[in-house]
Amino acid sequence: MKKIIFTTILVFFISGLLPWNESSAQVKLTISKKFGERIRMAVPPFSGNSYKAQQLSSQVEKYLDFSGFFQSVANSSFVSDQHNQDMKNGFIDFKGWQAITAEILIKGKANAFGDSMDVEFEVFSTSDQKRIFGKGLRGKSGDLSFLACTIADEILAKLTGNPPVFSKKIAFTTNYYKVKTVVISDFSGENRVRLFTEAELSTSPRWFFGEDKLLYVSYRKKNPAIYLLDLEKRADNIVIHFPGLNVNPDISGNNRFVTFTASRDGNPEIYVKDLSSGNYLRVTESRAVDGDPAISPDGKSVAFVSNRYGTPQIFIQEGASRLQRITWEGRYNTSPSWSPKGDMIAYASQTENGFDIYVYDIKEQKSFPVVESRGNDDNPDWSADGRHLVFQSDRTGTSNIYAVDIFTRQEIQITKSFGDCETPSWQK
């Protein structure tokens, strides 16, 4: 957990479907919902020769519901009855779907051929009684999570313009392999890939924006150093290695600036490195302990934790002179993470129940709780859409990775039975 790292600094200085009307029609669904209203959807079981077809449609429904833009028709038996009626009639009864309040209808089928699975899905507007769009995908028959995540993101992009969320990877640290090391998984927590086979301590992964690159901390040089791993080129290079501590890396939205904590000058301070020029900038200069930096998407500001006023609190350093304290409640606030849009900062705050996740609205200059559990919730990191967070929590006794919608506060558990999983980073 980042608070542990901060404490250490203190010490260490995604064949046709049913016929439908206007077979060549394509319409664009106009979403005019007010904020907070969700599109009511019906996702009947996918057909096909695969026994996993129904499981696939259930996962698609689950992810779309979690997106915050869609809401499943409340009574699942209505969906089942109407779907059976369509199958009996041989066509889509749009009025029937309207009657059970479904605004969009998602139908599909999945056929397995050996180790492969072909999936076709179509999305319909029940009010227009027309097809919005459809698509075919191919994947491995055992990889439902990839297919479900891809379908969900395709629907999100077409109907809302939302960037991909569920088909993006999660990087995190786990001690499952006896030593803490960085692992990548898909959103379901499956298809895990261990990045380093050596018995070396590695932690704190951070994705670059729109690139298959990661920053991480490794102890292969004895003292912690910050590395850049290019997954496409399989190249691993050290980028920051000063004497003492070099921890807490974070990357700006243009992938140019890296912020980090270092004790190169004796006291732990916040620095920024320009990866283009190689130049360094010291951001803080204080006798207090400064750590856990997060850089704004534009690279112009750095949020960080400091105990300069007694207890660890979060500050924003903008430019060379403007310093702003943003947390005033809670005796220990840590792990800031800047949203991709630059409008919010997520962080962990100590409460009576442990550490909970809060979000600070920069424009309103107010914080609101997002995750409150009986345990320690820490290390939040944003999705590409700026609406969801991944974070770690030890609420069950073991630290696992979860995701949350910051507005509905709906959660999904990502990892399970894979050791203590910490410091998650969501690919953008």
Helix and strand arrangement:
Blueprint: H1 2-11, E1 39-42, H2 53-67, E2 70-72, H3 76-89, H4 94-99, E3 104-113, E4 116-125, E5 130-140, H5 144-160, E6 170-174, E7 181-185, E8 193-194, E9 202-207, E10 213-218, E11 225-230, E12 235-240, E13 246-251, E14 257-262, E15 269-274, E16 280-282, E17 290-295, E18 301-306, E19 313-318, E20 322-325, E21 333-338, E22 344-351, E23 354-361, E24 366-371, E25 377-382, E26 388-393, E27 400-405, E28 411-413, E29 421-426
Parallel strand pairs: 1-2, 1-3
Antiparallel strand pairs: 3-4, 4-5, 6-7, 6-29, 7-8, 9-10, 10-11, 11-12, 13-14, 14-15, 15-16, 17-18, 18-19, 19-20, 21-22, 22-23, 23-24, 25-26, 26-27, 27-28
Structure description:
- This protein is mostly beta strands.
- It folds into 2 domains: 39-160, TolB, N-terminal domain (Rossmann fold); 168-426, TolB, C-terminal domain (Neuraminidase).
- Helix content is 14%, strand content 40%.
- The protein is built from 5 helices and 29 strands.
- It has helices at residues 2-11, 53-67, 76-89, 94-99, 144-160, and strands spanning 39-42, 70-72, 104-113, 116-125, 130-140, 170-174, 181-185, 193-194, 202-207, 213-218, 225-230, 235-240, 246-251, 257-262, 269-274, 280-282, 290-295, 301-306, 313-318, 322-325, 333-338, 344-351, 354-361, 366-371, 377-382, 388-393, 400-405, 411-413, 421-426.
- The strands form 7 sheets. A 5-stranded mixed β-sheet has the order 2-1-3-4-5, covered by helices on one side. A 4-stranded antiparallel β-sheet has the order 8-7-6-29, with no helix packed on it.
- A hairpin with a 4-residue loop joins strand 23 (354-361) and strand 24.
- The longest helix is centred in the middle third of the chain and has 17 residues, at 144-160.
- It starts with a helix and ends with a strand.
- Residues 4-34 have low confidence and may be disordered.
